[in-house]
Amino acid sequence: MKILFVLTSHSALGNTAEKTGFWIEEFATPYYVLADAGATITIASPKGGQPPVDPKSELKEAQTPSTNRFYKDLDTIDKVADSIKISDVKIEDYDAVFYPGGHGPLWDLANDKDSIKLIERFYNHQKPISFVCHAPAALLHAKAENGEPLVKGKHLTGFSDTEEEAVKLTKVVPFLLEDELKKLGAIYTKGADWSSYVKQDGLLTTGQNPASSGAVANLLLKTLKGDKYRNNVLVE
């Protein structure tokens, strides 16, 4: 299994003086689920090089066994720091793509033409694509082959409006992800705030928040191993 991880290159949290980037747990947990299963993982970002880390994801209360493992894993830290540019990715080299979240994707991956093209090509070549938390923002401008929004009619989830309100960023972010997915015709559902909630619809797997990252990775792993799912139900 060869899997591409796509991280944000955006570091400014709107017009505030604070920083953002990718959420460490949403990278580390899926990374180790997939790597431990034998996957070869490559990391990409819009600008290449070191993707910015959301400082809040480094706080004590945000740590998990996977983040603690990551901080000691110098090889993976170096791999992240040396991410390739999305524009240099050849989709034939990969079996799937995984987008971790953090608030950064709301600003860059939502509009990045190379990322949008990558998602469309993976989807059209029947390769699974997975997103966690704010990362489904990367789907907003992707189109299906018929020209309609790729998310239209798809069962999806992502960081909810109530969770955005809880972190007091509804007036800072450029848009509310839940609202935008619904506007495009996605069948958006969510679980309880901060609890694990995942939806799978064909090639698309989405997780609501950081607590969902491991479940998304495990669903992707099952898909790559040949299990077929529809709305989280195994199809024989």
Describe this structure in words.
There is one protein chain. The chain has helices spanning 24-36, 65-72, 74-81, 113-124, 161-166, 177-183, 213-224, and strands spanning 2-6, 40-45, 84-85, 96-99, 129-132, 155-156, 187-188, 198-201, 204-207, 229-230, 233-234. It is α/β, with parallel strands linked by helices and 236 residues long. Strand 10 and strand 11 form a beta hairpin. Helix 1 packs across helix 2 (65-72) and helix 1 packs parallel to helix 7 (213-224).
Helices, strands, pairings?
Layout: E1 2-6, H1 24-36, E2 40-45, H2 65-72, H3 74-81, E3 84-85, E4 96-99, H4 113-124, E5 129-132, E6 155-156, H5 161-166, H6 177-183, E7 187-188, E8 198-201, E9 204-207, H7 213-224, E10 229-230, E11 233-234
Helix pairs in contact: 1-2, 1-7
Name some characteristics of this structure:
alpha/beta; 11 strands; 7-stranded mixed beta sheet; two-stranded parallel sheet; 236 residues; disordered C terminus
- Estimate percent helicity: 25-40%
Beta content comes to 15-25%
Report Rg: 16 Å
User: How would you write the strand order of the largest sheet?
Assistant: 3-2-1-4-5-9-8
Describe the sheet with the most strands.
7 strands, mixed
Instruction: Write down the overall mean pLDDT.
Output: 95
Number of helical elements: 7
Low-confidence stretches: 229-236
Give the class from helix and strand content and strand pairing: alpha/beta
* Global geometry: globular
